[in-house]
Design a protein that fits this description.
3-stranded mixed beta sheet; 12% strand; globular
């Protein structure tokens, strides 16, 4: 029925890298141009959906590497947020920090009982690149945005459903992907041109804010992404 699956498969926890994010953006571009593709399902074969960035590597990044990952976060998630076709996220495990934006930028979210959702950036000592920030503002209510971003603590699946992060909560982990495919088929049956237009209308203010900031240099923040406290905060998170 035109439903394509994208499986995030970077073991063990789908840690984000510039290469992964930019290849993901390129794949979405190919799928957007393919008329046979009617909808996409995002999933992970691991216990963790995506744990965000690898702090062991990230804490040693120089300024150029910091700018590279900021650009990849902006471009990768902007590609998902602007993808003109239906996207359903099948979330069976933790979607944390950058990994949560795969979920927030999707159109429909199906979760299992062991799923959790959080934004740990404040505990790591960094702010949010403009892409993830504007996607968060556009898809979370202000109170949920406050709780997630200013505490760094995750939400279990039932709380995430109550907050609107999760649309459908399955009782069994094994049924999450099957339910997500069902939801994708339902969305795929809708008129595709209208779907893409309405999706763009809903998200246009956030898209314009992201694209404007990128045009003004947000992909290469002067001095890098880190501040004076970031490396120490990362070391504490890693138990060092």
């Amino acid at each position: 029925d035109g439903v394509v699956g994208i499986e995030l498969s970077k073991p063990p926890v789908n840690a984000l890298t510039p290469g992964l994010l930019m290849s993901f953006a390129g794949l979405l571009g190919d799928l957007a141009a393919d008329d046979a593709v009617r909808a996409v399902v995002l999933s992970s074969p691991f216990k963790v959906f995506s744990a965000g960035l690898d702090l062991k590597e990230l804490q040693h990044f120089d300024i150029a590497q910091q700018q590279e990952i900021v650009a990849a976060l902006n471009m990768g998630f902007l590609a998902l947020f602007t993808f003109p076709k239906p996207v359903v996220a099948a979330v069976s495990g933790a979607a944390i920090a950058g990994g949560l934006f795969f979920v927030l930028a999707s159109d429909r979210r199906v979760a299992g009982p062991r799923a959790s959702f959080g934004l740990a950036e404040i505990r790591v000592g960094v702010d949010f690149p403009v892409g993830p920030m504007e996607i968060g503002r556009a898809t979370l209510d202000p109170n949920t945005l406050r709780k997630l971003m200013l505490t760094g603590q995750p939400m279990a699946a039932p709380e995430a459903q109550a907050a609107g992060i999760v649309d459908l909560l399955e009782e069994e982990t094994d049924s999450v992907l099957e339910r997500a495919v069902e939801e994708a088929r339902t969305l795929a049956a809708l008129p595709s041109i209208g779907y893409g237009l309405v999706k763009r209308q809903i998200r246009q203010p956030a898209i314009e804010a992201i694209e404007s900031a990128i045009a003004e240099g947000a992909n290469a923040p002067e001095g890098g992404w880190f501040n004076a406290q970031t490396r120490d905060a990362m070391a504490r998170m890693l138990g060092g």
